[in-house]
Amino acid sequence: MNDENGPGIPKIRASVCMATYKGAAFVREQIASILAELGPDDELVVVDDASPDETAAIVEGIDDPRIRLVRSPVNRGYVRSFEEAIRLSRGEYVFLSDQDDVWIPGRLELMLAALSGSLVVASNFDMLGGGSRPWIPRLKSADSRRHLANLFAILIGYRAYYGCGMAFRREAARYFTPIPAYVRESHDLWLAICGNVAGSITHLDESTIYRRIHESNQTPAGLRSLPKIVAARVMLVRLMVEALRRTRRRV
After folding, report:
1. Phi, psi at residue 94, to the nearest 5°?
2. Helices H, strands E: what count in the chain?
3. Could you tell me if 250 and 166 are in contact, meaning their C-beta atoms sit under 8 angstroms apart?
4. What's the angle, vertex CA 49, arms to CA 44 and CA 50, rounded to 5?
5. Is residue 7 part of a domain?
6. Among 85, 95, 153, 195, which is 20 to 30 Å from 171 by CA?
7. How far apart are CA 218 and CA 77, in angstroms?
8. Residue 113: CATH number of its domain
9. What DSSP state is assigned to residue 40?
10. The pairing of beta strand 43-48 with beta strand 14-20
11. For position 3, what pLDDT does the model report?
């Protein structure tokens, strides 16, 4: 992850990191909603994960100097694409963004205000076009300091931490990256674990994005088999141990 803007390069305030893959249908609308929030000293870093459709060409065709597009020569999965975007980012504050949602106006400033006092911020979301949300309860600001309870809720699948609604300060990269090699999904839960183990995460009561659910979503959906559920819980325990190790190493 870049910690320097480099000589002669203006300081970047916020970096939005997006991983794209077969997102041609919705990525233009999402980028428009992001650019409307960004200031002149912000950037949008897009890593396209070897999309076989026109996703990268659509991004490349948007005429805005704040966009940085990187085309991956091979498909590595969305976790590694996000990690690459974060590594290339230069901002003091790092926002994660999916390719098919829509930002709610005011999102950037609301989350920047929260990051003035916390390493990580996590917000809620509403469904694009209305409709019911997933069954997991909304995040509550009152739970921001209940770190052990939050970790337990992550373990049992009861905390609505979604990467598309999260951001972190540059300093949090020392805990978050590199993302452990065994993480193939749930990078957002890893970020939430890092924030809670470090004792520095803020929940926002407000929704800051409209999520779009469709048949081509890259994140897992639906019911899972028991072996997959057990494997996911084992991974979460490993991540909590790893976050504790990194936190102690940095003290």
Report:
1. -120, 125
2. 8, 8
3. no
4. 125
5. no
6. 153
7. 9
8. 3.90.550.10
9. T
10. parallel
11. 42
pLDDT digits (tens, 9 = 90+) for 43-56: 999 999 999 999 99
Tokens of 106: 């005011």
Q: Is this structure's pTM higher than 0.85?
A: yes
Q: Which domain holds residue 121?
A: 14-250
Under 8 Å between Cβ of 104 and 210: yes
The total domain count for the chain is 1
Tokens found for residue 154: 């992550």
Give pLDDT, residue 130: 79
What's the CA gap between 134 and 117, in Å, rounded?
Answer: 29
Residue ranges, the chain, pLDDT below 70: 1-10, 214-224, 250-251
Length of the chain: 251
In a domain, 116, yes or no: yes
Instruction: Kindly state the DSSP code that residue 54 receives in the 8-state scheme.
Output: S
What pLDDT is recorded for position 73? Answer: 95
Tell me if 114 is assigned to some domain.
yes
Residue 2 lies in a domain: no
